[in-house]
Every structure is written in structure tokens, then in C-alpha cells.
Amino acid sequence: MTRAKPEDDEYWNSSKFKAFTFDDEDDEFSQLKESKRAVNSILVDEDEDEDDVERVSWSGEPVGSISWSVKETASSIRSGSEQSFPKIDTTPSLSKQGSGYSLSSLFKGNLHDLSPEETVRRMQKGRPFSLEKFRSLQDKLLLLDEAVAVYDGNVITAVSQILFRELMARDVALRHYVHYLKEMGEQKLLLMHYKEHLNIKDEGRRRDFLKSCLSLPFSQDDATHVQDHYTLLERQIIIEASDKKADAEIFKKFPRKASILNMPIITTLYYSCFYHYGESEGTFSSPSNIRKTFRISEKQYILTALGARAKLKSWFDVDSLFNTKNWLGYTKKKSPIGFHRVVDILHKNSAPVQVLQEYVNLIDDPDLKLSGALKYKCHDVVINTYRDLKDRQQLIVYREKLERDSPEYRKIQELLNNVQIRWKN
Amino acid sequence: MLISYQKKNKKKHHHLISSQLHSSLQKELLQFLLECCVGAAEPFYHPRRPHEVFLNPFCRPACQHRCKTRSASSQVYSAVQSVVGSLHMAHTEWKDAPGLPDFSLLKRLARDQLIFLLEQLPGKKDLFIDADLMSPLDRIANVTILKQHEVDKLYKVELKPIVSSSDQLCFLIRPRIQTVKWISDLVNADKVAGRFRRYKIIFTPQKFYACETVLEEQGVYGDVTTDEWNFYILPLDDDILSLELPEFFRDNFLEGDQRWVTTAGSALRLLQSVYGSFSKVYGIGRCAKMVYESWRELMEDGEQRTRQPEFAKVFLVDRDVDFVTPLCSQVVYEGLVDDLFRIKCGSVEFGPDVTSSDKSIKVMLNSQDKVFSEIRNEHFSNVFGFLSQKAKNLQTAYDKRRGMDIQQMKAFVADELKGLKQEHRLLSLHIGASESMMKKKTKQDFQELLKTEHSLLEGFEIRECITYIEEHINRQVSMIDSLRLLCLLSITENGLLSKDYRSLKAQYLQSYGIEHLLTFANLRQLGLLEEQQAGETLTVMESKVGKLVNDKTVGKLTDAFSSLAKKSNFRALSKRLALVPKSGEEYDLRVPRDMAYVFSGAYIPLSCKLIEQVLERDGWTGMEEVTRMLNGQEFAVTGGSSSSEARSKTDAQRIVLVMFLGGCTFSEISALRFLGKERGCRFIVVTTAITNSSRLLEALLDNSA
Fold this sequence. Notes:
- By secondary structure, chain A is an all-alpha fold.
- Chain A contains 21 helices and four strands.
- In chain A, 54% of the residues lie in helices and 2% in strands.
- In chain A, strand 3 (323-325) and strand 4 (331-333) form a beta hairpin.
- Chain B is α/β, with parallel strands linked by helices.
- In chain B, helix 1 (23-37) crosses helix 3 (74-92) and helix 7 (177-192) runs parallel beside helix 8 (209-217).
- The longest helix of chain B is centred in the middle third of the chain and has 38 residues, at 406-443.
- Chain A: One of its GO terms (biological process) is intracellular protein transport.
């Protein structure tokens, strides 16, 4: 298939007259072939009603037999011409409404006389065509149906562009048009409208835009999130304005690297745990206010606060996060997240061994506890665990990894010399 | 007695086992082999030579299986094992596996057409190239070629005002409205400034009417000439062809835009016209059907060639048939490199952490790289051992120099040194890459992540998985990984319980930004992340109805309801196709027994399993339940009838073209290479783009302007 040269294209696109090109012969020939196929396909359609002739699918079973139809329910095969591949029935395309276009037009060369089918084929092949003939709604629909039937997105969009009024009833074409509109930046769909906020740079205007979204009929679930989004940005603007000029010790010691505007809720909470820890719930910037406003779970809160306070090496704050008092007044450490996870976070914030050790000891699962202790070199925990397991061999192995005459080394030594212990090995 | 299997060169290879067996046992063995070969596609038994059995390579696993289940006598068992073993050897050493067609031809064709198009605009010109076309262009032409055809300066399309003093501007772009709008603006700006230039847009791989309409609307239609560069296929390697259209996935599956359907059809048509026609086409998916139809239409228009085809079977598969596979962490070397460093157009950039110097290196990763080609399909756990062995060999080769005389040394330098140095360079690069990957993976607790993925695939300890995902989200670790796990959870569980969905979504939005509302809407539309709505009503209905009628009726009702809901059916599919091996079974990753090795033995890629099954059955017969669960849309068609018989014995029959519509992962390619080796055939992968979990999900994100 050779494409018309550019200059021919220009000619065709600007001319209303039929003219000769070098391609013409080929053009005529393929027109003939197209027509032939058009005619054939019509015959095939009619044929389908008559089941007299036994047709055989390529797998050898007679078409129409039960096993055949079971096999091919989703992919009924129309046996094609001998040399070529058969056509397969695809998704429910629209039924051809009023296939009343005249056959004679198929054989005419005039661009304005072409059938919808042939026009679409010409478009597919990049040959000259004219859409001017398709004036009536009926004609336009035929053209569109034809474009949809050949799955050519290129042609579908092209036809859709000029036929947008008729689109509403046809899903596939409509989606093409909607996508085209999206690309053109003219969409007004609900979430798409909400998405517009991303294009607004000024935070004040963005906040106002989000406020305007609150009245939109979002689903109940999404409405809550949009409301949160508005509230969050509103708070962030207030916090940002005051923190930009804040001169508290913490801001001098750890200067802010970026503004808090447009950050996620959890990042905002982390920020507040970092710079505004201990503020009363009445202030917008306090962790407790943020926690309450955005319904943050205890687990999430503890994780975030832990990260922020560990980063600041405020081990006292870390401890208080987990301390609970029972009715007798004893403090006990409790956590909604596994203590192995806590240890992991503490380690990532380079907590000292003493701190790590305390939390490693709190890990419930003995295997996790031991592997944590080994990983973070909490010697005491390792040694005590092996002692409790009465595992003499492991203690000897572990001793070799330690520095001679270190307290841990001596501790193992004492244990090994202790005749009271009944070792298992 | 003679066991034969036929290889490509039609020379029979025999395996004599008569000496090991009594004649009665021979009979038993024969009977046994006959039984396990029933259903195999190829003839295996010659009636006039009853002592010769032809083994179809495809029956090997069946043989082994039967051997285990059917209590064959121990002698027969060992005889079968020995036959099977020899077959296996034959496969691993299959030196005469069908040769692959020479795809460099496609590059030449594309280059020639580009040169032709550039010459259509004679004289010096500046060339503006779409950013995502630069790498593909690099693979087929270079700056010298462009300069030879009077390209003066090269620019990247950035959709910003340009600085060019040339009188002729040429734009090499993908057919995107935004780019055409930008060009129109340039032309109009020139007009205002009273500047005269010639403009030419070369669309690749094709132009869209919508783009021309933009030119018309912007009033520059006559000022700009347009052309098409039909650069449909870029060969990335001997067995990988890419359309380099990553947007195919989103456009087709999310937006429902079929603009690329004909492009894929044209790509098939191109392959067919260069390499001969196909005799059989199998496929599954809505898009696959459309592509097939589009290709068939194109084929009917063109001239028919009756030349011998170089491959005969084609399998078309939609990405949305199998979303699970691309969402899994990749653990074969090439896949892992892609996940961590992002292979772009067959090349990767290794940073300072890999090169252990201060600069980055760009490396081509393909079969030309002798080190890479040996490890690319290996499970990552085998790679270290392989590399260290390779390093030892290299050392030995270098050591040969000691004690050489001048003459020998001269020969060594001339013949071997260059090769050794090259290997040395590659080896240290891949060792560096492996180290860096190990470090990265240890840092992100890869083991725990993999454990969760495997539990999800197996449907085991789902509550623990949800807790893990929740913590992953809470800790704000990788936004994409969190999303990936959520999607895996949803697909494998047929959607999330309503309360889980809402809670996880809320936490995700808190951690990564509320604007991801749009992302969630996209994922829901694609069926990647859903809330079980029908499920809820179902249980309510069930319990209500349950009080009124007996259990049997409730069961029927449940079936009816579940068929109403659009479901991924992963669990049922997995069971039916045996995608997930029983837990607790040992899996030796050094000697993979099936395609599951690409996921540490935990899961056989659904897409590849479908391909295997369809090829084995030569169609979809017997897979009705599977296709029903995949929403149907399967087809198997054959072309002509005349010459297929004659062709069946040629190489072409053993080369299968697999086209992934919407992208394919390196893990899938590795799995298919494994399958090919097992079955004595070769797979050529044609994909709209190489994908992985990050690319797939990033295409669906809507969190930035």
C-alpha cells in the first residue's frame, strides 16, 4: 500500500474535483476489491440464516454441532475465504441500522457518492475522502457505526470530532470523544473538575477552589476526603504563615527544609510532632489537634510520633509514647504496633544500644527477639536468651564474636563456669 | 527397543534401552509410554515398527507425572526416568533449536524510510524529536546519518518556545494533540513575527486525523506538510520486538481509546510481509480480537505472499487478562534490574554505586553481552554463584600469561586479551549491579515484602497481609509498592471487604496525598482495586434465604450471585491452572522444574500458563471454564488449509510469536524462554512496551497536573 505523495495530498484536500494521480490505477483496483468484499460480506450475512450447508470449522468438527458451539461460544468463527483468515465476531457492535444504502454507489468513483463503509475504509488507508455527503443524522450515524465496527481509533476520533451531537447514545465513540476532550483540556467531569486544583499554583486560590468543590455531589466516601483536603490546606496555610517567621529554639536547631504546604496528612502530622510537640489541643499546629481533626488511628499516630521524636533523639518522649499505668500505678509499656517494628524505627534513627535493648526486650515473639538482638548487637539480650534456652554451644560461639575481657565476654565466661546450670548441650 | 525423538534437522536421536529390560517389561514400558503420549499433538508411534516410540517433547512432564502417580514397576520407572532424562539433556543442549529470523531487517527498513522522508525536505534543517522517540531513534540511526541528510541541529521537543535560526524545521513526533498544538503555536508566532520558514511534521508510527484537525483549527494546515514514518517495531533483542508505545496501556484499557489498535495490526502486517504469513492465530482479550480483525483487514487488502513463513503461530494477549503477574516483584536477574534501575529501550544506566567510580555508565543489555545473556533468566539467588565462578575462570585465563614466551604472549594478546578484557569489564559491572541490588533490597526488607506477596498469591494468612500493607502505608514507604500490594490483595481476593477498602483507602490518602482519589478511581475502573459490593449483599441475601430453603439451593444462589459480579476469579483460576504450587514443597531454584521459578517457585505467570496450555491443546478446547472466568473473548483461527500440512514439519512451526497488548514484563519473557527450552520451540515476544509494576501503576496515577 503506497501512500499518496504529500503534494497529491494537498491537492486532494484542497480540490473539489476528481483528478488523476499516479495512484489512480491502484486506487480503482482496490476500490473494485473493496466493493467485491462489501458485496461478499452482505451475502455472508444473509447466509447465516440458512443452516443447510454443513460448514466445518478448522478443528474439523461440523459447525453447529453442540461441542462446536460450546467451544466457540465466545469466539464464533465465520469460516472465511479459502486463502485468508476468518473473521471473528467481536464485541457487541451496534446492529446496522437500516442497511439501505444503495449498492450502485459502491461502484462509483465520486468521493461524494461513497458509502459509509467505503468512506471509512478510505480514511483507514489515508486515501482522499469526503464527509460532506453525510448531512442527515441517519447518514452520520451510519458513518459512525462503520468507524466503530472497524476498531480504528484514529477514524473513530476523526468522525467523532464532527459528529459530537450524536455521540451520547454510543458508548465507545463517546469515550473516544471524552478522551479527546480531556486532551483538549475541556473536561468537566466530577473528579476531573477536582483534579483541576493541581493546576492552581497559588495556595490561597487552591484552597478556595477546593472549598468550591465541597458542594459537588461526590460519593459519601469521597466527599469526606475532599472535605479533609480543604481543611488540610486551610490549616497548612495558617501553620506555614506562622512557622515561616517562627524563632523558637527548635526551628534554629533544625531549620525547615521545605514548606508544609500541599504535603500529605501524615507528613503534616510528622511535622507537627517534630516542631510542635506538646502544644495544647487548642492550636491548629498541635499533634493532638491534627490527630483528632483527621481521625488518625492510634497505630498511625504512634508510628508517626515515634519517627519524629526518635529523629530528635528525645528518648524520653519515645518512652512516654508507650508507657501505660495500670490500676496499681505501675508503668508498663504497650504498643499497637509490634515492638520489633518499634526497634526497627529506633535503629533507623540511630538510637543508642541501651534504648534499643530496652525495646528488644519487649518483643513478644522469642525468635523475633533473638534475631533483633543479634541484628542490633544487644549483647545482654542475646546472652540471657541463650542462657534461658540452656544453649551452651551458642553461648560459646557468641563469645568468640565479642571482644576479650569486655563485660559481655566476662558475663558469658561466668555463665559457662556456673555449675548450677543444666546445659542442654 | 528404541526410543526416538526428533530434532529440527530431522535426524532421529535414539535412545536404546532394550539391554536394560526384559521383553515383558518392554511391553509394559511401551504401554506406559503410549498412555502418557495420548493427546500429544505429534505422531509418536509407528505401527509397522512397534519397537520404536517417537516422543513428543511436549509430553515430557506428563511422562514424569504419570510415572509418579501410576505405580509402574521400578525397572520401568527407572527406564522412563532415563528416557526422560535424555530428553531433558537434549533440550538443555538443544543447539539446533529453531533459528530466529533476522530482525535487524526491520531496523534497516525503518532507517531507509526515515532517510527518504528527510530527503523530502531538501536543504539544511533543524530536527525536533519527541523525548520518548530519542532512544528508539538511537537504536536505528545515529547523528552521522542524520547529518548526512542535512539535519543541522537536533532538539528535544519540550513544548516551550524555540531558538532556531534555520529556515526549515522538521518535527519527528508521536501523533499527540498537545505536540501538534505546540507546533501550531510556533508557526503562528513566526507568522506574527513575519518570519517565513518551511515546516514538516513526521508522525510516527502513523498520523491521526485528530492531529490534522488541530492544524486546521489553528489555521496552519497549509503551512505545515505532514508525513508518516511507519516505524512500527523496534527489535530490542533477538527475541524481543517492541512497539515502544507505553501509552497504549492507559489509552486502551483505562480511557477506552482504540487509537492504537490499527497500529498493532499494522505491526503484525509488517512482520507478516517481511517474514511470511502465519498459519494459526490464538488470542484472548477484547483488544486482541480487535487487533486480529484490524490485521486481517489489512492483510486482505495487500498482496498475498506465498513464501515460506519464518514463524507460523501467533498468540495475542491483552494485559488485562493477567494483572497479577506484572504486579509481582521480579526476582529473575533481568526483571530485577528493570525494577531497580529501569531498563530503557534495551539499555540501562548504572550509577556510581554500581560502577564504583564517580561516573555513571550506560550499558546495552542484550544477548550480545555474554555475561548478561547467561544470567538474565536466572533466579537472583543463583547469580552470585555464577558470577564468582565466572570470575575464577577469568582469573585462570589471565594466569595463563605466566611463563609464556614472547611468541605465545603475542598470540595471547592478539587472540584472547581483548575478549578477556571485555569479559572482565562486563563481569565487574554485573557484580557491581548485583551488589547494589542486594543492598537496596535488604534496606527495604525485601524478604518480608516477598513473603506477603507469596501469601497473597496463595490465599494464606490474609489478615496478616492486610496488617503488613497497612503498616507499609502508615510508614509512608514507597507509594508505588503500597499501591501494588493493595492491588494484589484486591485481585487475588476478588475485591476488598467494604470496611477494609474504606479504611485502607483512607490511610493511603492520608499517607500519600488526598489527590490520589483520582488514582483510586482509575484503579477501580480497571478492576485493579475494588470494593466487594455484590459480596456484601450476597451474604445478607444468603443468610436470609438460607433460613427459608435448604443448603443446596443456597449454594446455587451463591453461584448465581457471584457470576453476576465482575470478578477477577484469581483464586479459582489459580486452582484450575495449578498456578501456585502447594506450600511446603521444596523448590530447587537452580534446577527449575516449571515457569514458577521466575517467582521463586511461588507462582506460574498466568499469561504464560495460558500460552502453554493453548499451544499444547492447539486451541482452547477443554479450557472452557478458564476462559469463562477470564470473561471469554478467546479465539483460535487458522488461515487457509492448503499448505499447512507441508509446513508443519518446518522450523517455523516451532517459532511462536506472542504479542502482549498493553505491555509485558521481563519475568514473562524469561518464563517463555524457559518454556521454549523445555518444549523445543522458541518464543518471540512482541509487546507494545516493556512494563513492570511501577510503570503499570504510574500509568494510572493521577496525582499531578
